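Intended use. Records such as the Dihydroorotase entry shown here are meant for training and evaluating sequence-to-structure methods. They are not intended to support clinical decisions.
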Amino acid sequence: MGCTVIKGASIINEGKIFKRDLLIENEIIKTIAKDIKVPRSATVIKAKGKFLIPGAIDDQVHFREPGLTHKANIATESKAAAAGGITSFIEMPNTVPQATTQDLLEDKFTIASKDSYVNYSFMFGGTNDNLEELLKTDPKKVAGIKLFLGSSTGNMLVDNPEVLEKIFSSTDMVISVHCEDEQTIKDNFQKALDQYGEEIPIAQHPIIRSAEACYLSSSKAIELAKKTGARLHVFHLSTAIETELFRNDIPLKDKKITAEVCVHHLNFNSDDYAKKGTFIKWNPAVKTKNDQGALWKALLDDRIDVIATDHAPHTLEEKQNNYTKAPSGGPLVQHALPAMLNFVDQGKITIEKVVEKMCHNPAILFEIEKRGYVKEGYYADLVLIDPEKKWTVTKDNILYKCRWSPFEGTTFNNSITHTFVNGNLIYDNGVFNEENKGKRITFNR
């Protein structure tokens, strides 16, 4: 692999910005210093005027493989992730078949070992009847447990209270949950159906999948976690009221209950349905401006710990259906970091905070080994950003297999120019290294 020297970058790490050179040797960050003497055989990247950050870690994606590869696959979506500065992902179990046995889970790891451009892990999926299999999950080799407490696919809705308590009581692994109360949603949907018939307006989505549905489910999950001592992580908060359930008075490493917000809930609100339609149909729904503002407040005051994508592509044909038939979800990994950096330009968040929430905190939360930081001895998962190179999202530069994005037409004020994964330059100004692949993430547990 040889070595690479990155010269003169402004490194962003642990709340500080400092200009240094960085030496990559094989897979590892070997040296960070003011003026590194370039070894004779080294590749040199001149990075004056650019930011160098740790590769982002996306703790929630749906890459659709196996079984749903008409929408996406691990190769296409991990390639898009690399272009977007995401060097590690954690993928969800609701594929076909679902990753609800250890053998099926390992099948996904095998696919990723051959096809993923970036580092990877997968969550084991809990159901009402697979506790014995769930408890076989190796905490050093698997990211965690995923439970659907609403909006599940197949048989993955875990709605048996006794089973839930057993799961929460039986594992020390991170239990990540999707929280929406199914009965509330069903009742709201029936009201909309009675009023509008099959032509329910998209603007009804946050009313059907209401704040009440979210809060009812998430508050119950948190109550159960407190009762059992479980390590709970609540995915994709979308409401103001839910943010009040979380604390910011202790360090992340000491928290037993944590929270995530997704890029789309920070970028869009219910006013945007008129223009974006079903292209911003997600579960949980994009909600009001007030909810959006409360999410930002909780993110900045550290009640919300992580920014993720919930990347969940569907085909353009599927998304162009009317409200009742269009599936929820959308592709985001290529554009999430640029979108957050646009907020930096607007003064809404600092770049140091973006790095904290997208790089450091996922590593802390999931106890990921030697990733998420720019540190000597850590894997060289690194991203170079040109803060002054603007570009506009068009169909021609979208890398997702589905070939659409809710950000189409958006101009970003920054460009990701280089992405390193385990010391390999995977992405270089639009050109991909097709030879090297990512590694299985391991965990300090």
